Amino acid sequence: MTLVDIGANLTHASFRADLDAVLARARDAAVRTIVVSGTTVEESRRAAALAEAHPDLLYATAGVHPHHARECDEQTIPRLRALAAHPRVVAIGECGLDFNRNYSPHPDQELWFEAQLDLACELGKPLFLHSRDAHPRFAEVLRTRRDRLPSAVAHCFTGAEDELRAYLDLGLYIGITGWICDERRGRHLLQLVRQIPGDRLLIETDSPYLTPRDLRPQPRARRNEPAFLPHILRTIARALDRPADEVGADTARNARMLFGFA
């Protein structure tokens, strides 16, 4: 089995001391490709450098997360455009809207979300999208560019059925994380995942966040890592009543189709 983790924050400080061991465990767990998320211009630079240093395993995205929208300025888009030219950068993002934490004002979030959408449209680059408690506004913004929107994934989907239907209608891929393993908050995803067409489903860890709640034993400091992707896959496969290796192969093929890597 060959798996693709489409979203892991490997530039996070919690990985600095043992990243090589983390990557080795991922390989041992059949995770053959990991996309490292960029969340600020600087973190996107680090993600690209990390991918360049591990070309057998890593790719990267380049973008600004809505939490950091208030930090953007007139140099943000030119810098992201330059990073997008890096051969290991496969998408623009992580970008979108987050009305849960509101670390940046809504007008700033929308301004820089739209700017990154326009950059992706200009470059024809896939989008790595974030939405939390921002439906339906998130979908409304995407619809304004529907005719020229490149391929895109709704990363870390945790929403309700109406949100899922809106994203599928927009042609988005859907990324499922260890949230589906949480019997308190993610139970609804066990049903909703059945509504995701087989050619739109993607899997991810969002490491070091969203450690599967039912993983035993729990890792130290509850740090998630790409090696736990098979655990998430097995939960999804049970919900779909399909063999895990088949679902894994489908999601890996979908990731290659979305991001354009070999």
CATH architectural name: Alpha-Beta Barrel
Q: Please tell me what the overall shape is.
A: globular
Lateral arrangement of strands in the main beta sheet:
1-2-3-4-5-6-7-8
| Proportion in β-strands | 15-25%
Element string (H = helix, E = strand):
EHEHEHEHEHEHEHEHH
Task: Please outline the helices and strands.
Layout: E1 3-8, H1 19-28, E2 31-36, H2 41-53, E3 58-62, H3 76-84, E4 89-98, H4 106-123, E5 127-132, H5 137-143, E6 152-154, H6 161-169, E7 173-176, H7 187-192, E8 201-203, H8 229-240, H9 244-259
Parallel strand pairs: 1-2, 2-3, 3-4, 4-5, 5-6, 6-7, 7-8
Helix pairs in contact: 2-3
Give the key terms.
single chain; 8 strands; 38% helix; TIM Barrel; 262 residues; eight-stranded parallel β-sheet
Task: Summarize the entry for a quick read.
With 262 residues, this protein is of the alpha/beta class. Helix content is 38%, strand content 16%. The chain has helices spanning 19-28, 41-53, 76-84, 106-123, 137-143, 161-169, 187-192, 229-240, 244-259; strands at 3-8, 31-36, 58-62, 89-98, 127-132, 152-154, 173-176, 201-203.
Question: How would you describe what is shown here?
Answer:
With 262 residues, the protein is of the alpha/beta class. The protein has one domain (3-219, 229-241): Metal-dependent hydrolases (TIM Barrel). It has helices at 19-28, 41-53, 76-84, 106-123, 137-143, 161-169, 187-192, 229-240, 244-259; strands at 3-8, 31-36, 58-62, 89-98, 127-132, 152-154, 173-176, 201-203. It has an eight-stranded parallel beta sheet. Helix 3 (76-84) links the parallel strand 3 (58-62) and strand 4. The relative contact order is 0.16. The model has no long low-confidence stretch (mean pLDDT 97).
